[in-house]
From TrEMBL:
InterPro entries on file: BchE-like, Cobalamin-bd, Cobalamin-bd_sf, DUF4080, Elp3/MiaA/NifB-like_rSAM, Methyltransferase_Class_B, rSAM, rSAM_horseshoe
Keyword Iron-sulfur belongs to the record: yes
Organism: Paenibacillus spongiae
Domain annotation B12-binding: ranges: 1-133
Protein name in the entry: B12-binding domain-containing radical SAM protein
Domain Radical SAM core: 177-392
KW Mitochondrion (keyword) present: no
Entry-linked SMART domains: Elp3 (SM00729)
Cofactor: [4Fe-4S] cluster
């Protein structure tokens, strides 16, 4: 019996841990392949590949991000291979099973919840007896002699003994692609919390895999070339001693691999953070922290316990260590949160200056308390995945649309880190709050129709400058004085633009005003007297020809070095000198920026 385990990942670099768990449990007994696609692949290509594998059973792993595309594949597969047995599993179909069976007559079985043992039991019945009433955790169709069909939902299967599950990380066919894909890894199952918008709230208790096997699997993956391991544990730091031991192990054995964790910020012990600050190499750890809301009434309504003061201390301490990148999540549309209170949530979280801040929207997932109580808060939402809300009694659709504009420019600008210097200046000095900046810029962006067209790097800079010019004109027309200096903003944008290139850019998005003779004069002076810039610049030992080839010079209206060091704006004619990939530096290395006060250079 040929079995194919299939899923549609969100991106090619993603891998399916669920399919590998199933194959590890049953692959020795059945002829079993893993077939991974993406939601962007044409359905015809997916079905053609599945057809060529000639399976007797196809199991699809289903999530909110792939269910609708998977349904299209299922419909086509049933038509061209009527005899195939189609099995669904995964969180998207583990609730409302009768709904899915009625909506999808092409589907024969649904494996509910943890699938290893249930799927294995189902395969043995398909091979041997075709009797399914004792397969706990299974939903199936029973066809009676009179032609009547009945949907039967068996009792759930008890929780699995994780010590009995084989490793899903030892497949030789995975090794060639480990370096180019994300490896998903679980050290535990379950969640100690009961947030009503999350499926994890339905399963109580946390179970751990054997820690020595976990370590052995991680070493195998690192030795085999893995570069990014993402732990899918709902709260990696729920047990202090366990988390500390794992952090210590990863620090000692990382060999350049990066590890990402979901942690709960307000329960992270300070001494663990102290240990990481002292011992962790920079950049190997990434923390994903779900803040969701800072509104106490909202958190109480969704049964979410959170101490934002303690969470802020964790984020701040981790950031100050310079060792850990942090990704903070927000959810717009939770109960008791309107546009103004969400604005406050956004600003309080942005004040922590996380490396990434994801602004998501509440999804009414099947099986959650939020979906069950949707009517209580006046929610309307998409009937099909991803079940995103369209509004509630405090946050109408119009406000959701506005917040989506914030999400768009936040992702393009802040999370992409294309212009950190100028963004910090703008959110701190030019607008009432960070949210107001992103909102006004997002409104301007959509008003120009830019959401309908693509963009290159220079487009992003030019569009921000266009927005700021319009803001300046509006202020002049209304007689409002600016709290920021356009010349300073332009200077910081030039700095950010150059720092985004590994090689000297062929063009700039602003009008370059330095006359060629003046530029040549500066190139000659810098080649002759590099020590007037700095010792570091002089150590590059660049001749005039190399400077012309590998560097740019731009006038700045203020002392950039003082601003970057203290935040103070001091009026002074300054040269910004940026050197790209020269002086024996590593190919493609980031550029180096230097400054020189022009009055200091006048004696050359």
């Amino acid at each position: 019996m040929k079995v194919v385990l299939a899923t549609l990942n969100a991106k090619y670099i993603h891998t399916s841990l669920a399919l590998r768990c199933l194959k590890a449990y049953s692959g020795d007994e059945f002829d079993m392949d893993i077939a991974e696609y993406t939601i962007k692949d044409p359905a015809m290509n997916i079905v053609s590949d599945l057809f060529a594998r000639d399976p007797d059973v196809v199991g699809f792993s289903c999530y909110i991000w792939n269910i609708e595309e998977t349904i299209t594949v299922i419909d086509m597969l049933r038509k061209i291979k009527p005899s195939v047995r189609i099995v669904l599993g995964g969180p998207e179909v583990s609730y409302d099973m009768d709904f899915w069976m009625e909506r999808l007559p092409e589907v024969d079985f649904i494996v509910v919840g943890e699938g290893e043992e249930t799927f294995h039991h189902l395969l043995t019945e398909l091979r041997d007896t075709n009797k399914y009433h004792m397969v706990f955790g299974l939903t199936y169709r029973k066809r009676h002699p009179d032609g009547r069909e009945e949907i039967l939902i068996n009792p759930p299967r008890p929780k699995l003994d994780l010590a009995q599950l084989p490793s899903p990380h030892r497949f030789a066919e995975d090794v060639p692609s480990l370096a180019n894909r994300v490896v998903y890894f679980e050290t535990s199952r379950g969640c100690p919390f009961s947030c009503q918008f999350c499926l994890s709230s339905i399963e109580s208790g946390v179970r751990y895999f054997d820690i020595e096997r976990t370590k052995a699997d991680i070493l195998y993956l690192i030795d085999s070339g893995a570069k990014l391991i993402k732990f899918v544990d709902r709260t990696f730091n729920i047990k202090k001693d366990y988390a500390l031991e794992m952090f210590r192990f990863l620090i000692e054995n990382h060999r350049g691999c990066v590890f990402q964790f979901e942690i709960t910020g307000d329960i992270m012990p300070p001494d663990v953070l102290d240990y990481l600050a002292e011992h962790a190499p920079p950049g190997i750890f990434r923390f994903e922290i779900g803040v969701q809301s800072t509104n106490d009434l909202t958190n109480e309504a969704v049964q979410r316990r959170q101490n934002f003061v303690k969470l802020s201390r964790t984020v701040t301490k981790a950031k100050e260590s310079g060792k850990i990148d942090q990704h903070l999540d927000l959810i717009a549309g939770l109960p008791h949160e309107d546009y103004d209170t969400f604005r406050n949530t956004f600003n309080e979280v942005f004040a922590l200056r996380p490396e990434e801040m994801q602004l998501g929207f509440l999804k009414m997932l099947r099986g959650t308390g939020m979906r069950r109580d949707a009517e209580k808060h006046g929610y309307v939402y998409m009937e099909r995945a991803p079940y995103e809300i369209l509004g509630n009694n405090l946050l109408p659709f119009g406000d959701i649309v506005r917040i989506k504009r914030v999400e768009d420019v936040l992702e393009k600008y802040w999370n992409a880190h294309r212009m950190d210097h100028v963004l910090l200046y703008l959110v701190e000095r030019a607008f009432p709050s960070p949210f107001d900046f992103f909102q006004r810029f997002g409104d301007f962006w959509e008003g120009r129709g830019w959401q309908k067209i693509g963009h290159q790097l220079e487009d992003l800079f030019a569009r921000l400058w266009s927005f700021l010019e319009a803001t300046t004109e509006d202020a002049a027309a209304s007689g409002t004085s600016l709290t920021w200096r356009p010349d300073v903003v332009l200077g910081l944008m030039k700095l950010d633009y150059f720092l985004n290139h590994k090689y000297k850019p062929r063009k700039v998005w602003w009008d370059f005003t330095m006359d060629k003779p003046v530029l040549n004069g500066w190139m000659q002076r810098l080649a002759d007297r590099p020590e007037l810039v700095s010792g570091a610049f002089a150590s590059l030992a660049l001749g005039e020809k190399e400077l012309h080839k590998h560097s740019v010079i731009e006038r700045m209206p203020f002392d950039l070095e003082t601003y970057l060091r203290t935040g103070e704006i001091v009026d002074a004619e300054t040269l910004l000198i940026v050197v790209f990939n020269s002086g024996g530096r590593e190919e493609g290395a980031p550029p180096k920026a230097f400054t020189l006060l022009q009055d200091r250079a006048a004696t050359i």
